[in-house]
């Protein structure tokens, strides 16, 4: 299980590029039918999150975003989290349910019960992620419909 969290945490890496910052993010194959709503969500994301400025991505992507150093990363359309079960403990933020991972000291939060899974990684150096989850939740509720099935 620890391996999975390490892998997720390694998805985002910061590169130095002159005056600005460029963040290297691991490309992934988005789930079918999520590209359009995810691109709309990412286009509306703020320029600043938890007082961190939005970074340039390498490679460029319409379904990913990053802010700050160490980078906060967002990926939309990711596969269903392997740790998501019917009895998983979820956090409700606004109208969005989030799966925190690891449960005891989360740094990765995955929005579930929406037409696309959205992963938000918030390094522990930013402290409590409540403000980031709240801001992103508003946009998720606006752009991603709730799943038709009542499953997670």
Radius of gyration: 14 Å
- The averaged pLDDT comes out at 86
Give the overall silhouette: globular
Helix and strand succession? Answer: HEEHEEEEEEEEEH
Figure out the total of helices: 3
Q: Which structural class do the helices and strands define?
A: alpha+beta
Number of strands: 11
Portion of residues in helices? 10-25%
Amino-to-carboxy terminus distance: 20 Å
Strand order of the largest sheet: 6-7-11-10-9-8
Q: Per DSSP, what share of the residues sits in E-state strands of 2 or more residues?
A: 25-35%
What does this structure look like?
This protein is of the alpha+beta class. The chain has one domain (2-143). It has helices spanning 2-9, 35-44, 130-143; strands at residues 12-17, 20-25, 48-49, 52-53, 56-58, 64-67, 72-78, 91-93, 96-101, 108-112, 117-121. The strands form three sheets. It has a six-stranded antiparallel sheet. Strands 1-2-5 form a three-stranded mixed sheet, with no helix packed on it. A hairpin with a 4-residue loop joins β6 (64-67) and β7 (72-78). α2 (35-44) crosses α3 (130-143). It is globular.
Helices and strands in order, then pairings?
Blueprint lengths: L1 H8 L2 E6 L2 E6 L9 H10 L3 E2 L2 E2 L2 E3 L5 E4 L4 E7 L12 E3 L2 E6 L6 E5 L4 E5 L8 H14 L9
Parallel strand pairs: 2-5
Antiparallel strand pairs: 1-2, 3-4, 6-7, 7-11, 8-9, 9-10, 10-11
What can be said about this structure in brief?
The chain has helices spanning 2-9, 35-44, 130-143; strands spanning 12-17, 20-25, 48-49, 52-53, 56-58, 64-67, 72-78, 91-93, 96-101, 108-112, 117-121. With 152 residues, the protein is α+β, with helices and mostly antiparallel strands.
């Amino acid at each position: 299980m620890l391996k999975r969290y390490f892998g997720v945490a390694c998805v985002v890496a910061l590169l130095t590029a002159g005056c600005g910052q460029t963040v290297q993010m691991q490309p992934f194959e988005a789930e079918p039918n999520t590209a359009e709503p995810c691109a709309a969500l990412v286009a509306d994301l703020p320029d600043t999150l938890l007082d961190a400025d939005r970074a340039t991505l390498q490679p460029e992507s319409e379904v990913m975003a990053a802010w700050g150093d160490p980078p906060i990363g967002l990926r939309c359309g990711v596969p269903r989290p392997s740790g998501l079960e019917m009895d998983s403990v979820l956090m409700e933020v606004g109208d969005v349910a989030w799966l925190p991972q690891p449960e005891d000291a989360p740094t990765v939060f995955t929005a579930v019960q929406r037409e696309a899974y959205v992963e938000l990684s918030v390094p522990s150096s930013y402290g409590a992620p409540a403000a980031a989850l709240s801001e992103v939740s508003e946009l998720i509720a606006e752009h991603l419909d709730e799943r038709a099935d009542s499953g997670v």
